[in-house]
Amino acid sequence: MHQKLEQEFVFLLEENQNILHKICKLYAKDEETHKDMFQEMVIQLWHSFPKFKGDSKFSTWAYRVSLNTAISLFRTKKRKISTVDWNESFERLRYEEYDMHEEEQLKSLYAAVRNLNDIEKALVYMYLEDKDYGEIAETLGISEVNARVKMNRIKTKLKVMLSQKGEA
Amino acid sequence: MDELDLLKKHWQKNSDFPKVNSEEIKKMSHKSSSSIVKWIFIISLIELAFGLSLNLLPSPEKEYSNFFLNFELASLLVFYPVVIFFIYQFFKSYLAIKNTDSTKVLLENIIRTRKNVEAYIKFNIYYFAVVFFIVSVEEISMDIQKAKEVTSFLVFKEVCMFIAFAIIAVLFIMFAKYIYRLIYVRLLKKLNVNYDELKKLDSE
């Protein structure tokens, strides 16, 4: 039973792992933190998986737990913790080179989003993932109206950040 | 087109991420969590045990007054039920922490768990302050009773001793408080900042 559950979990997570990577990309400041955060997300998801009843899509459940991990549970380590060694494919992910081939504007946008606070990043993540305001509000535990208002403020904040960078 | 929509277009087609294979995912899921909640849980258990162990320290075998013996019994009758209540509250709020809740509820539950232990520590400090005061008064009165002659020097000596003990106790509490803040301010900073941000959002 346990083995079957584990197989199912591993299969679903392997398919949906980009959800975790995308959240790490917004919250982690470097490659090491990305790895640690990803691992903590996997642990949190696995702990909760027996209670995942399939009422929602796996992806919806996974992004919720992963966002909560990034915002509330993950502790940035000062020293190296024992992280499972990843395959060499991680070499492809170099933070400083993230958007090397992208336009300047995109680079600046990613940089600006990474400068937002944890809650703002969560709103941006869900906005980028095309979640509706009802879902955004429910995930964060705020009202839908406030989610909308905050999202508009974030857009303005990003505009200001980008224009300041442009002037500098 | 606004900036975020440009980012959205890029975001949704962005798949340039490393591929973690099933074997690695399996290994990761068996790793031990190093989350803030786990740290809070471990530190809280140590604190709960520390509070309890302080009260188990053997008291010197002396002939205490009836008032003191009654006080000791009464204080234990208050101490243990209160401690059991705190431990019950702690586990209740700890078990309520679910990573599938909304972010706000999750943060509330973590902070509540922590506040329970803080209240427990405060209770311990006040409890031991009262016990310290009563024990000191008892010791002083015993010394005075035992003395053949009550001189002003004896009274002065006893008062000085009381003040010295009080200063040591205050210094100890201040030091404990400093260490405490050092650990918790760092551990809880992120949680408090994020919770305040969510609260601010809903109060506007």
TrEMBL record, chain A:
The keyword Ion transport does not apply. It comes from the Bacteria. SUPFAM superfamilies: Sigma2 domain of RNA polymerase sigma factors, Sigma3 and sigma4 domains of RNA polymerase sigma factors. GO terms for molecular function: DNA binding; NADP binding; oxidoreductase activity, acting on CH-OH group of donors; sigma factor activity. GO terms for biological process: DNA-templated transcription initiation; glucose metabolic process. The keyword Transcription applies. InterPro entries: RNA_pol_sigma-70-like, RNA_pol_sigma-70_dom, RNA_pol_sigma70_r2, RNA_pol_sigma70_r4_t2, RNA_pol_sigma_r2, RNA_pol_sigma_r3/r4-like, WH-like_DNA-bd_sf. Residues 108-158 form the RNA polymerase sigma factor 70 region 4 type domain. Keywords: Sigma factor, Transcription, Transcription regulation. Residues 12-79 form the RNA polymerase sigma-70 region domain. Belongs to the sigma-70 factor family. ECF subfamily. NCBIfam families: sigma70-ECF. This is RNA polymerase subunit sigma-70. The lineage of its organism: Bacteria, Pseudomonadati, Bacteroidota, Sphingobacteriia, Sphingobacteriales.
TrEMBL record, chain B:
The chain crosses the membrane at residues 36-57, 77-97, 117-135, 155-180. This is Uncharacterized protein. It comes from the Bacteria. Keywords: Membrane, Transmembrane, Transmembrane helix. It comes from Sphingobacterium hungaricum.
